Amino acid sequence: MPTGIEVLPRRSVMVPRHMKMLSFVTRNRIAIVPRPAVVTPGLTLRPPHRPASASSLEITSELRSSGSPSGGITTVNGCLISSLQVRTWVSPLRFAWPIGMRNMPINPNRARRDRRIEGMRERLRRLGPVGTRRLLVAVGLIILLAVAGTMYLRGVERVEVMATLLFIPIFVAFATWGLKGGVIAGALAALAYVGLRYPAIEAVGIGRFSGLIASRALGFIAFGAIGGTANEILEASLQKLELYDQIDDETGLFNARFFLEDTDLEVSRSKRYKTIFSIAVVEFPASSLEPLKRRQRAAATKELGRLLGESIRDVDRAVHGSDGVTNRLAVVMPETGAEGAVIFTERLRNKVGEYLRIKGAQLGPTDIVSRSITYPHDGEPEVQKLRSEFASIEGLQQPGSAEDGADS
Fold it and tell me: What is the DSSP letter of 65?
């Protein structure tokens, strides 16, 4: 209920005959709010339960009353009434909200922050593991160069500026060779710093520079060791992500790796338990999306994945794979016979073609190709042929895994 709606005890309200009543159940009392038969434009309630034909409404979920108690007269829907609480509204407790609304942003700042975080995650997913590594190295080098440039402009001793630049080879070393490379590069950088300080040491002795040299050497080696350890942890995480990643970044559907594992499992299950499964495949040329701009193409592909995911059963698995020439959409359907697979494949082909043409793709009458395979009705060679096509796609995305996927 918006600010200005008053919560009144039942006994203190004088209700005219032409008014209808709206009843809210609060934590320990009944609160009555009169309202006219005609709803005032712009008035909203939360939760929005206000049927026009009902003379009263009781909300059974636990509500929370917010506001400071005070006496006075206020206006409710154009009527002056006395009240015991002003500037009061009634809203459901958070645990009483529907599950889908519990994580809903309740303020604009949180909504903007969530959108920025989601956008950053989407960009990192598009970069991939290799792109993420390159981005981290580039950002680190830019920061080190910026620090050295700032020191130079502020007139810091040139030897110290050169010492800051010595962190760059250490950074490249641990980013490339991990902990061992970082420690070795740190030790070499410490020796290089001693070489830079050697003329001054020869002139006034090492005593005045011993503390500075020790701190610098410790800093170089610690930077290499800590950075190398962090890089190895990051590498392990990225390798694990590459190994277990089963989601296609373009559509949000399953990827070629999942298709290989899933069809292998379905074939084994069919042999053991004498079950059947079918695969519906729809293919269209990747060049058909070239007339679209990059963002439009990405949005159309993502939306196509969402529509396909909503068009299948919960037990079906939708897959997308592209080799740069052909986009393949496949749906693995357990316990589905040949006749049902043919009907579903034809409907899927029509739906995909209609959607792509609406988005502006250039598709000819024969550009979209569809087929369906039912196991064991069509035999294992047909399934293996389709698996080899997705194995080649997996080989392009993850070099070295195509042979394993085809042989499994």
Answer: E
Tokens of 146: 């910026």
Pairwise CA distance, residues 372 & 360, whole Å: 27
How is residue 80 written in tokens?
Answer: 């002056």
Q: Residue 364: left if φ>0, alpha if ψ -120 to 50, beta else—which one?
A: beta
Evaluate if pTM is beyond 0.70.
no
CA distance 293 to 397: 23
CA-based nearest residue to 3, from 73, 92, 86, 93: 86
The residue to which tokens 């949005």 are assigned: 299
The answer, yes or no, to whether the previous bond of 376 is cis (omega within 30 of 0) is yes
Amino acid, res. 173: A
Do the Cβ atoms of 76 and 2 come closer than 8 Å? no
Q: Which residue has the tokens 């995305």?
A: 397
Which tens digits make up the pLDDT trace of 30-55? 344 444 444 434 333 333 434 344 33
Measured CA to CA, the distance from residue 81 to residue 14 in angstroms comes to 8
For the chain, the farthest-separated pair of C-alpha atoms sits apart, in whole angstroms, at 105
H and E: helices and strands count for the chain: 9, 12
Question: Which is it for the CA torsion 30, 34, 35, 36, positive or negative?
Answer: positive
Angstrom distance (rounded) from CA 61 to CA 91: 10
- Give me 59's structure tokens: 């909300």
Distance of alpha carbon 235 from alpha carbon 129, whole angstroms: 9
Query: Identity (one letter) of the amino acid at 375?
Result: Y
For 153, counting Cβ atoms within 10 Å of its Cβ (0-12 exposed, 13-18 middle, 19+ buried), the class is exposed
Residue 178, H or E segment: helix 167-204
* Distance between CA atoms of residues 215 and 192, nearest Å: 14
Cα angle, residue 283 at apex, residues 280 and 287 outer, rounded to 5°: 165
The b/e string for 346-380 (b: 16+ C-beta within 10 A; e otherwise) is eebbeebbeebeebebebeeeebebbbbbbeebee
Encode pLDDT of 130-182 as tens digits.
777 788 888 888 999 999 999 989 988 888 999 999 999 999 999 888 899 99
Which residues, 6+ apart, have CB-to-CB distance to 76 below 8 Å? Answer: 4, 5, 6, 33, 34, 35
- DSSP structural state of residue 48: -
Which among 321, 301, 316 has a CA at the least distance from the CA of 251? 301
